[in-house]
Amino acid sequence: MLKKETFVPIQFFKKEAYTGSMNGMRYRIKKEEEGLEATVYPQPYCYEATADEKKTKALFPFSEEGRQQALEWINQQFVEKQDLWAAAERK
């Protein structure tokens, strides 16, 4: 699970997107005009090579609170879609 204390600071997102993975689930957080966009999708491909219909997105304010909300949302997605991530990891 992602932890706010050890995750990249909000200033990081001013310059580029941050991607990572855990146990079959990939995630991406990027600053957009509307705020902070968080996306989760199954392995094995990168964000650009994964079909849009396989991605789940949510938008949060571009703030420290929004960063924390995005991390909580990613963790929630990891728990709720455990079967999807496990299947992706086995491939």
Strand share of the residues?
25-35%
Q: DSSP helix count?
A: 2
Roughly what percent helix? Answer: 25-40%
> How do the SSEs run, as a string of H and E?
EEEEHH
Largest sheet: 4 strands, antiparallel
Instruction: Please tell me what the overall shape is.
Output: globular
Radius of gyration (Å): 13 Å
- Report the end-to-end length measured between terminal Cα atoms: 22 Å
Overview of this protein structure:
By secondary structure, the protein is of the alpha+beta class. It contains 2 helices and 4 strands. The chain has helices spanning 64-80, 82-90, and strands at 18-22, 25-32, 35-42, 56-60. It is globular and about 35 Å long. 23% of the residues are buried.
Structural topology:
Layout: E1 18-22, E2 25-32, E3 35-42, E4 56-60, H1 64-80, H2 82-90
Antiparallel strand pairs: 1-2, 2-3, 3-4
Summarize the structure.
This protein is α+β, with helices and mostly antiparallel strands and 91 residues long.
Throw out a few tags for this protein.
single chain; 91 residues; alpha+beta
